[in-house]
């Protein structure tokens, strides 16, 4: 074979196996082309606040909303937000809730109030006051006997603070005057003694007003409207001056009504 023929055959010869294999490996190792991902923004999810808020949080939130929106809301709705009337509504066989006014924008209960008796001494009852619902924090307990001369001294215990305080009812809760002009003094908190005064028409109690004891011309802090007929619910009005003392007002109101409506105290 001539040199020219040898050159032509070499140029037209197929590539060697090693070269072909190298090209095949390079093709397999080349990553596939992936189209660019379109990132969409996730929708914003807003979680609702928990329903079991404490009364202190509820009162503060109501006060903030009232201050911020006092010019934007009607006088009637601002009034019910600030002072009520709040309603003592039955809740089961031995409990009740203190509920905001029906026109209030916040329908959560302020207090859960339940009553239980001692199995060994059934004449002794315990009233437990919680903030919010029945799972709320206990702020106070009132223990008293429904009998007059059984020798039991009723007690009230505030458990909502860091240091629970206990006192005998006959040492802090005093009844003054005749039935139509009953006055009940509440001296549990020495800094803020309270006075509950009955307002009557004849022998019918129209309301019981709460003011600060020992102060000349004191402002009204709260007014309880007792039920005078079957099916009527008792309501509690709390003024702006009384809102900072809400716990003390509710506890003393329950103790006063329990004593005022007990037969031997009439």
The amount of helix comes to 10-25%
State the end-to-end distance: 141 Å
Along the chain, the helix and strand elements come as HHHHEEEEEEEHEEEEEEH
Specify the overall morphology: globular
Q: What Rg, in angstroms, do the CA atoms define?
A: 38 Å
Q: What's the tally of helices?
A: 6
The main pleated sheet reads as: 13 strands, antiparallel
Low-confidence stretches: 4-13, 38-78
Strand arrangement, major sheet:
7-6-5-4-3-2-1-13-12-11-10-9-8
Write a short abstract of this structure.
The chain starts with a helix and ends in a 6-residue tail after the last helix.
Summary keywords:
single chain, 266 residues, alpha+beta
Tell me what the structure shows.
This protein has 266 residues and is α+β, with helices and mostly antiparallel strands. The protein is built from six helices and 13 strands. The protein has a 13-stranded antiparallel β-sheet. It is globular, with a radius of gyration of 38 Å.
């Amino acid at each position: 074979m001539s040199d020219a023929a040898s050159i032509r055959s070499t140029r037209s010869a197929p590539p060697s196996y090693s070269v072909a294999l190298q090209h095949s490996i390079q093709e397999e190792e080349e990553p596939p082309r992936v189209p660019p991902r379109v990132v969409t923004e996730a929708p914003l999810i807003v979680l609702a606040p928990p329903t079991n808020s404490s009364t202190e949080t509820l009162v503060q939130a109501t006060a903030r909303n009232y201050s911020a929106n006092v010019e934007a809301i009607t006088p009637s709705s601002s009034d019910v937000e600030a002072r009520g009337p709040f309603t003592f509504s039955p809740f089961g066989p031995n409990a009740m809730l203190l509920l905001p006014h029906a026109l209030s924008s916040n329908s959560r209960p302020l207090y859960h109030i339940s009553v239980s008796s001692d199995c060994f001494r059934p004449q002794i009852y315990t009233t437990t006051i919680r903030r919010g619902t029945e799972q709320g924090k206990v702020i106070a307990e009132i223990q008293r006997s429904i009998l007059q001369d059984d020798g039991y001294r009723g007690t009230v215990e505030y458990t909502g603070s860091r240091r629970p305080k206990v006192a005998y009812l006959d040492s802090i809760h005093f009844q003054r005057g005749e039935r139509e002009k009953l006055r009940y003094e509440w001296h549990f908190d020495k800094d803020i003694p309270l006075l509950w005064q009955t307002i009557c028409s004849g022998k019918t109690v129209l309301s019981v007003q709460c003011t600060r004891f020992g102060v000349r011309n004191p402002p009204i802090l709260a007014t309880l409207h007792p039920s005078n007929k079957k099916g009527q619910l008792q309501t509690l009005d709390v003024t702006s001056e009384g809102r900072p003392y809400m716990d003390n007002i509710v506890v003393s109101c329950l103790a006063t009504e329990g004593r005022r409506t007990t037969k031997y105290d009439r």
